[in-house]
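Why do we care about 3D structure at all? Because function follows from shape, and shape follows, mostly, from sequence. That is the central idea of this module. The next example makes it concrete: a single protein chain, its amino acid sequence, and then its structure expressed as tokens.
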Amino acid sequence: APMVLVVEDAAVARAKLAKLFAGAGYRVETAVDGIDALEKLAAHHINVLVTDLEMPNMDGLQLIQAVLGNIETDNIPIVAVTGHDELQAHVRDYQGLYGIFRKPWNDRELLKRIETLARLRPPAGTRVSTA
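And the structure:
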């Protein structure tokens, strides 16, 4: 099954998202901030990254930049979940971002998006050559 990485510093939201994806048949890894997330990304083949934007230590926007700036992870589709409107403006600047969901998110819409994105990233070891 595809693996979804949920990055969220609030325990309740993190648990809700993890339960939502696990219930839909995904394997789930969780992280509490961007630094934790980068460790998980290095250790697992993640198919979709779902991240909060406001977090301590390393926030979601910094995490997104780090993921998109690394050749190992630049093909991971990313979905952001946020409680703030003003971040929507920044988000258009990020090419690897495949959607932004307002808290409280709609479970069905979020799952539908994840389902589409989970097919985008090929399994480990199949690096598509851009040469």
